[in-house]
């Protein structure tokens, strides 16, 4: 969450507060405010550290005056804090000004009036309705924010004080982008208590215990156990990825692609027949409806934009079920980049339709004939290629695995799934269920619910022929701590550390490791992990096809099959992440049709 410190006035105080690196600093250009800027304030604002964006706050000022001030002091944003009309916002926005439109909220606030401003603002700000417009030190009832249904991110403002930090972190509205602090942090109007501001910033920014730490670890899992040749490349990626992917220009491009190219948001579909059958409310998050047929495209597009920003010309990828290979080939075609996909020879045979699609999209496919000829071996070969081509090549990893920062980066790109779910539901589900190979669709579906301890999160591994047989891919059920594909995680391995060949009917789950965040979520017991056999997954695929007219991927069928194992209560609201569609599995599925 971002932080804006508003109402700055005195140079020494600005200097001190800027040491805490707030994301935004606000300067008041409203003459009636006791925080109205001084000439020397503005000189200072011009030289602000670029990590802190400057915001000029105006109340019903003439447009020409606003434009003059923006230009003279290089303001990054203008905050309209009065009764400025849509037409007023449009004129400024069309003149190239980045806008934050503030609204004064009370119980009579008409949330519909925001709609008309949407095309012309970057952010909204919700403040308490008072006669003085702002800086009142008064809070409004934050429950009212539940009425906000638009997608534009907003700043929460109005009387925020240090003791509110924990409560703010609990607010589960995905559009909550930043908080705005002001009078409750002052020793006098326009003078902030630097220590208190610092404390607030640190508390708000403190990372969740379920997310990656500054060293790239989730508890004892994660890290980057990489060969020396890759060190400069990975280091540069670690240092730059967050700034690049959080930048406005990156997000604008990505969000536009997700909407217009992928077809997001994907529906959260209430399955009436499944609900009747299981006597509870069952919803399917339809990632199978994404362009290319699975959630993998969310990450492929994110990483391809990142690769472009880092001037990479060549993309390599590994693939198991072929969904990630197809997503990568698609993204490369879209961006005009060379694409090489490593795929196990066994997977090439069992996922023929996806192999054909990748070829159609112009990708070169390299068959991997070592080991079990599946995903693990394809990943080994992709890493080998990367070591040989560290500078011009981006390795577009398809799951929340690999060296830091990949698990976190891929999780952030897939988090769009749970972000949308949060917008699509009125109240939290009781359960979210997702299948797990490396674990990217599951992390995506869980991400924004990790702090909501009332939601039971369930990850389903591939049990294969059963976890009491050697033919299984149930890593968390049977594995132990070890390093696989450059990160510390849980691995299916012998006592002396040799990786055991996994087995699953579904190529996308046929992996002997798991993302380090899942290993941590397993250890901390935040997520419950279980497993489903090949046969149970097949049965679930046929069942959904007949019940809903939706043919699911074999991977997603593992999550669906878990419904048979649960003790379901009539009050349950269960979301299954339907990560992909089953066209690629038709050969396997049709062989098992019962006449
Ligand atoms: O701060 C002011 O004096 C002010 C006066 C008139 C219009 C806007 C003003 N401030 C804008 C802000 O963004 C404030 O931070 C916001 O109103 C919250 O202030 P507070 O209630 O003091 O936390």
TrEMBL record:
Catalysed conversion reaction: (1S,2R)-1-C-(indol-3-yl)glycerol 3-phosphate + L-serine = D-glyceraldehyde 3-phosphate + L-tryptophan + H2O; N-(5-phospho-beta-D-ribosyl)anthranilate = 1-(2-carboxyphenylamino)-1-deoxy-D-ribulose 5-phosphate
Gene3D superfamilies according to UniProt: 3.40.50.1100, Aldolase class I
Protein origin, superkingdom: Bacteria
Subunit-level organization: Tetramer of two alpha and two beta chains.
Organism, as annotated: Putridiphycobacter roseus
EC number in record: 5.3.1.24, 4.2.1.20
Gene giving rise to this polypeptide: trpB
Sequence ranges assigned to domain N-(5'phosphoribosyl) anthranilate isomerase (PRAI) in this UniProt record: 4-202
Identification of the protein by name: Multifunctional fusion protein
Family annotation (NCBIfam families): PRK13803.1 (NF010376), trpB (TIGR00263)
Cofactors (names): pyridoxal 5'-phosphate
Functional pathway: Amino-acid biosynthesis; L-tryptophan biosynthesis; L-tryptophan from chorismate: step 3/5; Amino-acid biosynthesis; L-tryptophan biosynthesis; L-tryptophan from chorismate: step 5/5
GO MF: phosphoribosylanthranilate isomerase activity; tryptophan synthase activity
Domain Tryptophan synthase beta chain-like PALP: from-to ranges: 263-580
Record keywords, A-Z: Amino-acid biosynthesis, Aromatic amino acid biosynthesis, Isomerase, Lyase, Pyridoxal phosphate, Tryptophan biosynthesis
Pfam family, one: PRAI
PROSITE patterns associated with the record: TRP_SYNTHASE_BETA (PS00168)
GO-annotated cellular components: cytoplasm
Family: Belongs to the TrpB family. Belongs to the TrpF family.
